[in-house]
């Protein structure tokens, strides 16, 4: 369950997570959303998220809407893994849902450098009013539409070693980008929005969070500390 917010938090928080394949993007996202109980994960590649670890799997848009409708009539809690990569009707949920976190794997599949669907554009422009969060995940930051990067509160990168990508990221944060080619699996760095990420996690854990160790294991340690405090 989400615990009371102990810090003043933005009405929503949009994040961009990128890094090369196999270095822990999905594990990082799992750590970020672990405590949330209104989550839709768009599993674009259809293998990143599982029913055992993440939520109920749906394979059609109709099933997704059916599950959301049933959840709203009950307690309003849901964690759903949507494996509907070719069905963009889910865009409508960006406007129709409230207080929901959307995780979109391979975001560049839907909004690449040259194409930005109206629904995604409007979400970044006006989504704060509905207190929705969007965590966009991709391998190559260069392939994301620039308006997404501009509208993102938190930018996180895992390992990167491609020169053109590193040059691109240096425009965001040069000192941090210079560390990316030295990272190991599970290590990550915040290029933008450290305070916003801390507030987002503070809202979940019910205590003020300060991120010192930027690893997926470090997120788990924060959670274990909270469990120990409760005991």
Description of the molecule:
- This protein is α/β, with parallel strands linked by helices and 231 residues long.
- The chain has helices at 25-33, 61-73, 93-96, 118-126, 146-150, 163-170, 174-177, 194-205, 216-230; strands at 14-18, 38-42, 56-58, 78-82, 101-105, 133-138, 154-157, 189-192.
- The protein has an eight-stranded mixed beta sheet, sandwiched between helices.
Task: List its traits.
Rossmann fold; alpha/beta; eight-stranded mixed β-sheet; 9 helices; single chain
Q: What's the helix and strand layout?
A:
Layout: E1 14-18, H1 25-33, E2 38-42, E3 56-58, H2 61-73, E4 78-82, H3 93-96, E5 101-105, H4 118-126, E6 133-138, H5 146-150, E7 154-157, H6 163-170, H7 174-177, E8 189-192, H8 194-205, H9 216-230
Parallel strand pairs: 1-6, 1-7, 2-4, 2-5, 3-4, 5-6
Antiparallel strand pairs: 7-8
